[in-house]
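Record Beta-catenin-like protein 1 N-terminal domain-containing protein, 98 aa.
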Amino acid sequence: MVRRGEILDDGIEDDFYIRRLDAGLFVLQLICYIMVEISNSGIAQLQQRVQQILNLRGGSVKVVRHIMREYAESIGDGKSEEFKEAERKRIMDLVENF
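=>
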């Protein structure tokens, strides 16, 4: 739609995002989140194994970081704004150390 020059309003963007979540984005985000958490555990062998699995499957750190940034931007579960911002910061810190 963007390529055709159409203007997307927030409602259309939200609908598109929800469709992507239903189509598997949510599971992908959770897997990336687990990989980022494991890699930040401080255990070098775990970080090496995550990198090895990514390389074997043709994945990249860049893609995982992009998925996690999108995840952090979309956090909103009805909690307070302070909680959401703290969680966003925590996730972004994990991503930067990935």
